[in-house]
Amino acid sequence: MDQQGLSAPPVIGAAAPVPYPTAAAAAPYQAAYQHLYQQQQQQHQQLQIFWADQYREIEQTTDFKNHNLPLPASKKIMKADEDVRMIAAEAPVVFARACEMFILELTHRGWDHAEENKRRTLQKNDIAAAITRTDVFDFLVDIVPREEGKDEAVPRPIPAGR
């Protein structure tokens, strides 16, 4: 300080010490991050197993007459496009299988969200969270809106190679 009680101005470029949390204070955050990372890795691994099972099932399919989704409904959806005039016999079969796989993956991802929230019942907000977290489902964001106030922040996982 000088004679008038004023202190010297701070030196430009000199950084003030930044307080960093101690290792003990950072431990809960690190543990939570590790848990989230492990959970994402486990979910990714489960999805890889799911798709491997789907491919195996497709390769082993010999009976194309039995379906989980009704073929007339598939055909009706296909004919909803006014440009579609004729539909080959095998097209609704492939379409129905693709729809089934779509529903299964979306359900699988929604179930992961339900389990993260310690629930054993799949809810609409679980499906909405699965849509929000998965880039490939972005086209559904406006169709299945998230309910405000439920599971507020839904982080998108770091994309891993699929």
UniProtKB/TrEMBL annotation:
Pfam families: CBFD_NFYB_HMF. It is found in: Nucleus. InterPro entries: CBFA_NFYB_domain, Histone-fold, Transcr_DNA_Rep_Reg. Its main location: nucleus. Residues 69-131 form the Transcription factor CBF/NF-Y/archaeal histone domain. Keywords: Nucleus. SUPFAM superfamilies: Histone-fold. The keyword Nucleus applies. This is Nuclear transcription factor Y subunit C-3. It comes from Platanthera guangdongensis. The gene is NFYC3.
